[in-house]
Amino acid sequence: MAATPHPTPHLEQPMEQHLEHSPEQRRAADIIRLLTLYRPLLDAFVIDFFTEGLWTQLPLAWQAALASATPLQLAGLLSGHGGPGAAWPLSLLAFAAAARALAFPRGYPRGAPRPPCQNSHLHPLLRRHVKPKKQHEIRCLGKLLQQLSQATGCERVVDIGAGQGHLSRFLAFGLSLSVTAVESDGRLAGLAERFDRELLRELRKTRTLGHEDLPRRCPNRPRRTLGPLTPRAPQHMAGRLDPAAPWGEFLLPPDPPGPSPATRNPLGGPEGSEDGGRVLVTGLHACGDLSPALLRHFARSPAVAAVASVGCCYMKLSTALQAPGCPPGYPLSASVAALPGHQLSYRAREAACHALEEYEGRLRRGSAHLRAHCYRAILESLIRDADPGKRHLGVQTGRKAHALSFRQYAHLGLPLAGLDPAGVPLDSGAVGAMLEQQHKVVAFCTLGQLLAPVVETLILLDRLLYLREQGFHCALVPLFNPQFSPRNLVLVAARSPLDTVLAGLAKDSEDGDSSEDEDPGGAEPPREGQS
């Protein structure tokens, strides 16, 4: 199946469409059938590759083909673009094709990717303290929120899980929106206020907005003329979202407390927001249950005109009732909850967080990083042989594990499991035999990578169906370059049609406004109604 060349939004449909047997429900049902067929593969931990004999659980025809596959051929299996000399069993091709067809297209940049670097679309003062990946994300999401603001007439934005305030700072200083930033960690809220003060001091000092103190740029990129910043900082609040509370009372005290005092609820009371107007709510990579909580508050709060949510850390989603009045983070929708087999294990939700494009790139480059999974699986086997009661320990040997020999790796990892390397046979024939199976471990990981986007699609589809069941207009937009930001799908929902918002994104793309220094591909103009 050929990959969609550029990002397009998915599943924006009229609010009055009846949900029964809708394309979204059929896709959810098909995904669950696929995941049920391959549940053992989905729920397998790669570190159990040797201890549980995972290779022997694959069909014999798959074993034969995968055992002789090169990393480049495995990359072709992932992408659907084929691989030189690959001859896959039809059942394996059908599995891969079904997985790719059921996953939401994530967008593919044009040309060869460059490493992320400074974003020339952002004012230099807004790049301070912000890594290039985050620069890309806050600018793309900021422009989407600007379109939502223009379409709804709302100039107030509530940024939930604001962290150090990078998105809020861009919205307020760069886009002239009135922003309330809510962060559960009081220390981060205090740090965000410090960064705001630094920026305000620089503005007062230079009085030359948009041209001074440019940081190091990507080579051979033209210098851009940027508009002035608005000297209006966000309002920062230290507080936690209470998913069970009524929408007018949704903040809890911060944990841990910080120097920034908790203030009034930005959603206010029954008459609307704090100043009586409506607001937009957003969360950039709101972790675990925070994203579902945002959607629930949007659904029951008339003060919220629209929401733009980017989720992450799906393994932290609750899947059972936490407390009276506090439903789980998955499933949200009645549609998915009613489907037999919709349950997702911790392992499946963890897999949904994988960076598919990064793994494909490692396969194409034959990266040394690929050996890390084999190392960890061998270490697991040695730990279990030494002490069968020790299983799936959180052994972290550092980011450079792939650059070590296995002996060096084991000497770092075994003490973390409470074992003395001197008492473990690291030079045995069994260890050597396992090291020779690294290509099989890589092939097994590739199969799991094929299912990862399908699981993420089901989770996001559940959220979209939940909003559709409440009667809202919604769309999923692959907004970020997935090579730099793997969690790149943004769920947008509003109480009014999203046509003008999607058209605004299209105009940005046609004007070349979406082309980032670290994203050479930019985005194709979005088309409404594509599923």
UniProtKB/TrEMBL annotation:
Residues 1-23, 211-278, 503-531 are annotated as: Disordered. Pfam families: Methyltransf_32 (PF13679). Residues 13-23 have a biased composition (Basic and acidic residues). InterPro entries: Methyltranfer_dom, METTL25, rRNA_Ade_Mease_Trfase_CS, SAM-dependent_MTases_sf. Residues 510-521 have a biased composition (Acidic residues). Residues 133-319 form the Methyltransferase domain. GO terms for molecular function: rRNA (adenine-N6,N6-)-dimethyltransferase activity. PANTHER family: CGI-41 METHYLTRANSFERASE, METHYLTRANSFERASE-LIKE PROTEIN 25B. This is rRNAD protein. It comes from Menura novaehollandiae.
